[in-house]
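queue> pop job 88
queue> type: inverse folding (structure -> sequence)
queue> payload:
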């Protein structure tokens, strides 16, 4: 019983990290109806920039973090302005394909600037794990969970209680109607990409602190697709809940199923869940169900 509790609690903490990365997908989709498949590369860039600021200038983490977030915000705005804005009005599938190309470009730039060499983060979080009595939560996962909860609260409040959030929701519902009400759709798109880049950078820093940084860090972005499909593509709360569920299932599979088949099941579980959810409930647990008349 103690092992199960440890696995579940560790899964919740892992899921919190997945959830904060999933927010990057959800924030763009919620405002623009676009699935950004370059989220993983935003993570990698954020982790490398933070590591570089801390390593080259010997800046403490509390200074390196805001520098990284500003860089991520500017990167999101620049990419939206130069690459995505000319595609407004084009078919969604065309924009998604462009994000795949963007992922390759960012991956190549990361390789060119930092090389494929593996790097370790300096200690940025207190090393002491959290002892709950029934389970122990490692420091990196604990802080990832905390960041996920804080970001979820912030962005939920932004979407529900601010004029910016209202504009983003209106734009996602109907761009033409939003324009007729005086909402700047271009500004909304830029903000959504900026917010998404910030959350991806935070996720990259957390993952990099736990497992190190390399140009392959962004591969976890594909795993997080299962999280957003499960929670709902347009649901901020769903991103976190989906992360918790995937994190728990992944840990349970790693402990109880990997030994039976010689390993590998843990890596497959998120994608198995993705297929099942698409078959049973394609809009996810909290996703908005759309009814189309044909």
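queue> result:
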């Amino acid at each position: 019983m103690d092992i199960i509790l440890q696995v579940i609690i560790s899964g919740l903490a892992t899921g919190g990290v997945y959830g904060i990365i999933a927010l990057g997908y959800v924030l763009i989709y919620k405002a623009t109806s676009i699935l950004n498949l370059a989220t993983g590369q935003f993570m990698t860039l954020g982790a490398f920039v933070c590591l570089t600021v801390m390593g080259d200038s010997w800046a403490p983490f509390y200074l390196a973090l805001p520098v990284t977030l500003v860089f991520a915000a500017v990167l999101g705005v620049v990419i939206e302005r130069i690459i995505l804005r000319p595609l407004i009005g084009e078919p969604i599938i065309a924009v998604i394909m462009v994000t795949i190309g963007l992922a390759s470009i960012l991956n190549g730039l990361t390789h060119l600037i930092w090389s494929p060499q593996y790097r370790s983060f300096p200690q940025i979080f207190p090393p002491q794990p959290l002892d709950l009595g029934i389970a122990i939560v490692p420091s990196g996962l604990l802080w990832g969970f905390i960041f996920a909860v804080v970001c979820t609260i912030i962005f939920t409040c932004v979407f529900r209680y601010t004029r910016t959030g209202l504009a983003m929701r209106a734009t996602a519902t109907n761009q033409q109607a939003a324009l007729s009400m005086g909402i700047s759709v271009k500004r909304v798109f830029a903000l959504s990409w900026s917010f998404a880049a910030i959350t991806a950078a935070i996720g990259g820093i957390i993952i990099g602190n736990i497992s190190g940084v390399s140009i392959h860090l962004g591969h976890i972005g594909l795993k997080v697709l299962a999280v957003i499909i499960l929670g709902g593509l347009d649901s901020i709360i769903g991103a976190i809940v989906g992360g918790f569920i995937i994190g728990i299932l992944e840990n349970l599979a790693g402990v109880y199923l990997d030994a039976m088949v010689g390993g590998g099941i843990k890596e497959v579980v998120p994608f198995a869940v993705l297929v099942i959810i698409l078959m049973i409930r394609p809009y996810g647990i909290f996703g908005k169900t759309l009814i189309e008349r044909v």
